[in-house]
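Sanity check. The docking grid for D-xylulose depends on where the pocket ends up, so I'm generating a full predicted complex first rather than guessing from homology. Inputs follow.
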Amino acid sequence: MPHYLGLDSSTQSLSALVVDTDLGKVVLEETVNFGADLPEYSSPNGFLANPDPKVKHSNPLMWVAALDALLSRMRARGYDLGQVSALSGAGQQHGSVYLRAPIPTPSWSASVPLADQVQPLLSRASSPIWMDSSSGEECGEIASAVGGDDEVVRLTGSRAIERFTGPQIRKFWKTEREAYEATHEIHLVSSFIASLLAGRSVPIEYGDGAGMNLLDLNTLEWSPKLLRATAPGLEGKLHAPVPSTTVVGSIAPYFVEKFGFSPNAAVVSFTGDNPSSLVGMGATRPGTAVISLGTSDTVFAAMREPRTDPRGFGHVFGNPAGGFMCLICFANGSLSREAVAERVGLDWPAFERAILEQSRPGNGGRLMLPYFVPEMTPKISRPAVRLFGDDDFRNYRDAAGAARAIVEAQALSMQRYSAFIGETPRTVLATGGAAKNRGILQVIADVFQAEVHTLSVSNSSALGGALRAANAAGKLPWEGLFERFVPTAATKRVLPNPAAAHPYVSLRERFAVEVERLGETSAPIA
Ligand code: XUL
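Predicted complex below; grid placement will be based on this.
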């Protein structure tokens, strides 16, 4: 009967998922969409309008209001929150919240909306989120203050990146000095939501903390060098980071009184949405890579040891089940696949057939460089689409060749830029909208020479939160949790074609040559 609650505070919504670990079942899922359900925050897509397209901020009070709304909905559906033994969750990574005082418990009244009570605590009205790319100057300043990009990578696992929290904090210090001075503590979205639930300010944990350009991966402490390079007095505004399995307290009286939680319900550290998904997909051990096919594509995987990417494109975060994980983002995901499909007039079923039935692995040596929008991995600052092959192919008259070429280029790119972790995945878990397309899955299987599985988990990040709560507070071992909650659907396995390995040897080399020619290695930093 023990119930564990997982939350996921993402860009556009706050979701909840409850598991019953005895029954081995997800017993409830609920969500609040910021745009549709909280229109008063004027954030149809989860962030505020801004005349500068590089600036993407959200109102943190919207996240607080969403918590009240979500828990009310769960109650309204007849769910007894008193059954929850422990809870944990995740937040969109890198986003930050600035408080002028620590979070207090006793003063919160259950009869006043939580957002109204949190409002006076904010020293900054809005929170920069991961979509913000306005801190390029600060990235350069931080990197040069510590001795260059390589040193930032060595210490933190990533180059100084615009969306990462450190450069955002530096920008805040530079542009709003007084508000920075008035800030008592800085949170990530994850530690902020956990602090609300625990009714006290709780520390950032390693998994999400590694996405700040501040955590020294070698010591798992804030790096004094990077703190100094980021903003004066920053060390006093961050609690010492903690392991992901830390029970940070019991649920605050506000939630007990208002929503009927048990006062003994434990709150486990929240982490970033990607580390949480690693858990929710049962991919916490090396050898399995997750490929998420969305607007942008993402590859992430557990690592045996904390290797950093010598090219500086990949990121290293903490693995909530212990050790580290890598994450590599590709801006050219579904938009590029769509651009090609549209250009050659294929709908998705026809696109799938074009790959599976009308073209062959390696595409007869035809190759596409797929940068329809500026790319971050590798760093390509202007759109650059190049087609190498016969005349028909270069002029998009070969529809099947073009469909295969975009997907092969993306898969080769994923393989090339995740190779730094030194792990050849035996299994790839595919997720996201395009994971429905068997043609795309077959190309991934053939390029990686790995089995590709799709999972039925739709909210892997919230599920990861529930499983982390069960593991850390309920002391339930990972293996049993994965067996019950993350089964792989055998019917949906895509096996690699061994004969496909050979044609990719030369295509891989050609891809490397052409992408380097485009300027991969000489690219300026973020
Ligand atoms: C990862 C990243 C995004 C956000 C999305 O570095 O920026 O995946 O975590 O919520």
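Relevant for the grid: Residues 522-526 have pLDDT under 50 and may be disordered.
Also worth noting: The two ends are 49 Å apart (CA to CA).
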